[in-house]
Predict the 3D structure of the following.
Amino acid sequence: MNSAISAMDDLDRALVHALQLAPRASWERLGPVLGARPDTLARRWERLTESGEAWISGIGLRTGSTPPRMAWVEVTCTAGTSPAVGAALAGDPHALGVEHLTGGRDLLVFVAVPDLHALYRYLSFRVQLIPGVVSTRSSVVTAVHYAPDRWRLDQLTPAQSDRLTGRTGRTRRPPGGPFSAAPSATASIAAEERPLVLALASDARRSVASLAREFAMSESTLRRRLARLESGQGLRFSSALASGLSGWPVAATVWAEVAEYEVADCAAAAAGLRETRMCMSVSGRWNFVISARLRTLEDLSRYTSDLTRRLPGLRITDSAVSLYVRKCEAQELDHEGRRIRTVPPDIWSDPAPDSSRVV
């Protein structure tokens, strides 16, 4: 562990930041921006991915004309069973995130399924039947205002970022996420494209040539499909560095209430804070959920104070710190935040196949 930490340097972090901005950029394109030889960057990336310290995953959830149904599921367990319950849920393709939390809930699970009936089946015939689970409480996502793939490290200079993105100012992308936009034909994933999307879940930098061979299609056809999915945001990329090495090791979740007419202002205020990783509108007792990454545990109170100062109408109702982020964006992690394995996010599969005869 110590040798891995000592091997991490500023160029490694700059490389991850660059890939957050341009996930499939060639090493030749990245080299001049980072001031390194392309072969040096390739070797570094291979070392980082093999050790589980960094990765780029491809996530594609939209099918047809409707977005997936997503939910935050709070799980309460009997004493001593939360590790086993968390491990069981981490292996599910529908559970994109699993965290062990402080406070009144043992686990917080971020779930994606095709529709509401699939969510009912997943909760009733999968989650609630895991030994040790006492109760669940779910909040359905009604809008994604800021998506996790937009969170960035802060290693590159503004000039370097502009060279990669083609922008001329250091402005953050506006609020709004892949699933908050109105349904669009260009954003959908056809059934025959699902295997291609799942093939990118563990390594979104796979070459066009290797993907074309695997799926028996021409490289030009495969490039067109990838370009269509990316441009329509049906496929998004998430480049990450192990939290213990990133400088932002603390994960926290904040629940809040805000008047419906102030939701847009709330989203903009949250997205304007450096620590915000994700914010969503949800159903339930509280109508807003914010996920943050912090440098220290003590920063949580400052972060929540910043939120309420920016938007006095926001009432924070609860907050929790993650004791262990077991899974994030379909990647199962160790306690240092290193990737152990990828669980392909096949959200279209039956969430409870053993209960197929039960309504």
About this structure: Confidence is low (pLDDT under 50) at residues 1-6, 169-186. The first strand starts at residue 54 and ends at 59. Residues 284 and 342 are 31 Å apart (CA to CA).
